[in-house]
Amino acid sequence: MDLRRNPYAPGAGAPPPQLAGRDVLIERAAVALDRIRDGRYDKSLILIGLRGVGKTVLLNRIQLDAEQRGILGVRLEAPEDRSLPGILAPAMRASLLKLDRARAATATGKRAMRALAGFIGAMKLKFGDVEMGLEVSPELGLADSGDLDVDLTDLLVSVGEAAKERSSAFAIFVDELQYVEEDQLAALITALHRCAQRQLPITLLGAGLPQIVGQTGRAKSYAERLFDFPAVGALDDVAARLALTAPAAKEGVVFEPAALDEILMQTRGYPYFLQEWGKHAWSVAPASPITEEHVRAATIQATADLDASFFRVRFDRLTPAEKNYLRAMASLGPGPHRSGDIAEVLGRKVNALGPTRSALIGKGMVYSPGHGDTAFTVPLFDQFMKRMMPG
Predict the structure, then answer these.
(1) Domain end marker among 180, 195, 228
(2) Across residues 18-43, what is the average pLDDT?
(3) Are 41 and 102 contained in the same domain?
(4) SS (H, E, C) the chain
(5) Do 382 and 354 belong together in one domain?
(6) Looking at 121-135, 157-171, 215-229, 244-258, which range is the least confident one?
């Protein structure tokens, strides 16, 4: 079939042609944002899930819908080597400048800009990776103490007051939230908590790997009362089939039922993998319908592509000890697995493997779904490890 007409879009955060099975989550976020804008309390939301389930796509969709309803916001992606102020300051600057252009600057709007100026000056000294300035004089004593807890609270309160004056809300969208250092995460939680106490329309919508639940709890004991953690998982059977068939139908192409069954078995319903298999099945099939035989051929190509990119970029970041640990996990199956069972495969003591496990959690390769349990954050990674280290 015509490769130019291939509707499937596997990619990092690339929106699929059919965003199936996520309507409930999208509406849940919309309700929370609208309640906050209208002066009614609602919890901040952090989407949690494994790699490849579409958390970034969902976060982008929620932000787009919010902007269309007049809700202000900033979009951040937390890297592993930058501080929270380092990524927040420039995004906040752009958002506040946009706000001032949209409407004549008010006293609260100007104060928010002065708070940001003070915050930038103080955080430059504290973290060193805040590389910008403002053509606005800071207000002495406002967000300029050098204490992140105090200054971030001052900043968000000032922004919340400006948003409230405009009968709007301000949302901070943060992807890869698990990479925010826990002391900085604690400061963000403290600031959001203060804004909630003052009934200011400012909130967080984040996305992260499952370990973010434990990280927020360690950062602040009251985090569970401030956040909801909706899980984003594999699509159910109906939604997974729709994600495949709807884009194809728009191009006049159909799947045979056995072909769909085979794709669902191979992908386990994970959205990113559905897009990969859909893309390759389209490429393999000379014409409609796409058959089970076409899917089996597509599986070879999809697996090779995943091994060369999606899986390989994660594998190449690992030390030999970390690779051995993951290979031991893979020998036990998809997981989760008890730490003692992994240690037994490696012929090591559990305590001796603690640093390796901690390093893998820090790199976002595994997480702990329960005390003493370890699981892959990347679906199908157990199969990849067996292919890469067959011995």
Answers:
(1) 228
(2) 95
(3) yes
(4) CCHHHCCCCCCCCCCCCCCCCCHHHHHHHHHHHHHHHCCCCCCEEEEECCCCCCHHHHHHHHHHHHHHCCCEEEEEECCCCCCHHHHHHHHHHHHHHHHHHHCCCCHHHHHHHHHHHHHHHHHHHHHCCCCCCCCCCCCCCCCCCCCHHHHHHHHHHHHHHHHHHCCCCEEEEEECHHHCCHHHHHHHHHHHHHHHHCCCCEEEEEEECCCHHHHHHHHCCCHHHHEECCECCCCCHHHHHHHHHHHHHHCCCCECHHHHHHHHHHHCCCHHHHHHHHHHHHHHCCCCCECHHHHHHHHHHHHHHHHHCCCHHHHCCCCHHHHHHHHHHHHCCCCCEEHHHHHHHHCCCCHHHHHHHHHHHHCCCEECCCCCEEEECCCCHHHHHHHHCCC
(5) yes
(6) 121-135
